[in-house]
């Protein structure tokens, strides 16, 4: 935390502690028990009457899964608090249902499988399959798996990756992959000065291995020509 400010806004810390706990759905009694402090003390932290100790704040940060820098206000805490909007969720479910139903319909037509044959293969009634394809019903996960197996569809290809939900899922996958990296590599990634090397590596990756081989051959030819001229 070497980049933190020397002064911490008491009211902002208090507001963030309250906001983080409410977002977690946990009670003051539960959190105070986990941190082994009186509930009244935690309540006073959330009211801005007292500062928690650093070890207490570290533990609270870990419980809420919100970085300390977000709790003390150096980072925007809203980036770490998940507050879904009901109307948005319902709209996304509707869109996702349409996408899945369209992909199922196209896959069946491309496979040239009749409703009856697909029903026999999956054990799902033809009526259900028709409703799934027209978007009248949302297939349960077990039915979707059966349909994917019969239609040679990759289930992972149906998982959302574009909407806010999909982006969130993808980020969780990224966090997991990063957390499994060697500690020294994670340390390398954390240093901003090293980001230029990552961008350079990405540039080489975008070029492609064949282009890199061509570039290497061209450089070798150029160096050989220069050497012969000398």
Taking pLDDT < 50 over at least 5 consecutive residues as the criterion, the unreliable ranges are: none
Number of helices: 13
Question: Helix and strand succession?
Answer: HHHHHHHHHHHHH
Count of strand segments: 0
CATH top level of the largest domain is Mainly Alpha
Q: What's the CATH H-level superfamily name of the largest domain?
A: lambda repressor-like DNA-binding domains
Mean pLDDT: 86
Helix content: 55-70%
Query: How far apart are the termini?
Result: 56 Å
Supply the helix-strand structural class.
mainly alpha
Level-2 CATH architecture of the largest domain? Orthogonal Bundle
Shape: flat
Instruction: Please describe the biggest sheet, giving its number of strands, its sense, and whether it closes into a barrel.
Output: none
The rounded Rg comes to: 27 Å
Tell me the β content.
under 5%
Under CATH, the topology of the largest domain can be stated as: 434 Repressor (Amino-terminal Domain)
How many domains make up the 3D coordinates? 3
């Amino acid at each position: 935390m070497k980049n933190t400010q020397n002064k911490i806004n008491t009211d902002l810390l208090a507001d963030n502690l309250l906001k983080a706990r409410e977002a977690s759905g946990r009670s003051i009694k539960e959190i105070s028990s986990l941190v082994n402090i009186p509930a009244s003390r935690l309540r006073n932290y959330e009211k801005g009457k007292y500062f928690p100790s650093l070890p207490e704040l570290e533990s609270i940060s870990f419980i809420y899964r919100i970085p300390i820098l977000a709790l003390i206000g150096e980072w925007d805490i809203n980036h770490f608090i998940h507050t879904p909007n009901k109307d948005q969720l319902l709209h996304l479910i509707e869109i996702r249902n349409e996408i899945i139903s369209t992909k199922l319909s196209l896959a069946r037509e491309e496979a040239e499988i009749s409703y009856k044959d697909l029903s026999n293969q999956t054990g799902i009634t033809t009526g259900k399959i028709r409703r799934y394809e027209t978007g009248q019903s949302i297939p349960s996960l077990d039915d979707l798996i059966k349909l994917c197996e019969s239609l040679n569809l990759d289930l992972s290809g149906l998982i959302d990756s574009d909407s806010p939900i999909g982006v969130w899922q993808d980020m969780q996958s990224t966090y997991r992959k990063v957390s499994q990296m060697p500690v020294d590599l994670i340390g390398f990634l954390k240093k901003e000065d090293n980001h230029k090397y990552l961008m350079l590596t990405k540039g080489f990756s975008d070029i492609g291995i064949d282009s890199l081989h061509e570039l290497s051959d061209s450089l070798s030819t150029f160096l050989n020509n220069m050497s012969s001229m000398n």
